[in-house]
Write a structure and sequence with these properties.
The complex is a heterodimer. By secondary structure, chain A is α+β, with helices and mostly antiparallel strands. Chain A is built from three helices and four strands, in the order αααββββ. Classes of the chains: A alpha+beta, B alpha+beta. Chain A: It is found in: Chromosome, Centromere, Kinetochore; Cytoplasm, Cytoskeleton; Nucleus.
Chain lengths: 115, 113
């Protein structure tokens, strides 16, 4: 039983992370409109809360959390990422969120740590 | 002396990575104006080129490369990232590039194995 559990803990669970990131974004910018003065603290807040939540899970991973917030004004935005890692143990998760005035894209990368 | 050289070979060198990023961006979109139909292949091309140059360095690192291309239209864009890693061995490098019609932001994260 214990062996089965440790197998579970070591893999990157993208679905779980997806849900917790969405909650995090909703919590910070959920009911707001794009505000140039506040966007700085919003992005910082989103990445910090997401990271704290991930670290609390206590899994053997290094994390990188990236957040981009863009005002809706007709401009085109394209993002891409590529990773050179161990596909068996490492993983990533990207969440796209929007409201009437802005887009928010959050990416989480998790790289396994060999203990 | 030998110890110092080994450390350099296995450290994340920001200048070196910055140069690789700039070359990849220039080679892919250097002379172009923003085109909605091509931006998909541009972002892919930039990250792939960066990644292959980085892996050629032969250092014991895992890499994550992200690229954002945005049309210049007056919109505001803010990005932030935070990392939970080993400060003594891991590092990141972000390069902001622009021309008359678009912005391009490339970030490379290197995590020691």
């Amino acid at each position: 039983m214990e062996e089965y559990n440790s197998g579970d803990e070591v893999a990157f669970n993208a679905d779980e992370v997806n849900i917790s990131i969405k909650e995090c974004v909703e919590g910070v910018i959920g009911g707001t409109d794009y505000n140039q003065n506040k966007v700085n603290q919003w992005t910082a807040s989103i990445v910090e809360h997401s990271l704290t939540h991930l670290v609390k899970q206590g899994r053997p991973f290094k994390y990188i959390v990236n957040c981009a917030i863009m005002q809706k004004s007709g401009a085109g935005l394209h993002t891409a990422n590529s990773c050179y890692w161990d596909t068996a143990t490492d993983g990533s998760c990207t969440v796209r969120w929007e409201n009437r005035t802005m887009y928010c894209v959050v990416s989480v990368f998790a790289v396994a740590v060999t203990l | 002396m030998d110890d110092d050289q080994t450390e350099e070979e296995t450290a994340f060198v920001v200048d070196e990575v910055s140069k690789i990023i700039k070359e990849s961006v220039e080679a892919t979109i250097g002379a172009n104006a923003y085109q909605h139909s091509r931006v998909n292949q541009w972002t892919t091309s930039v990250v792939e080129q960066c990644l292959s140059q980085l892996s050629k360095l032969g250092k014991p690192f895992k890499y994550i490369v992200t690229c954002i291309i945005m049309q210049k239209n007056g919109a505001g864009l803010q990005t932030a990232s935070t990392c939970f890693w080993d400060n003594s061995t891991d590092g990141s490098c972000a390069v902001r590039w622009e021309n008359k019609s678009m912005y391009c932001i490339v970030t490379v994260f290197g995590l020691a194995i």
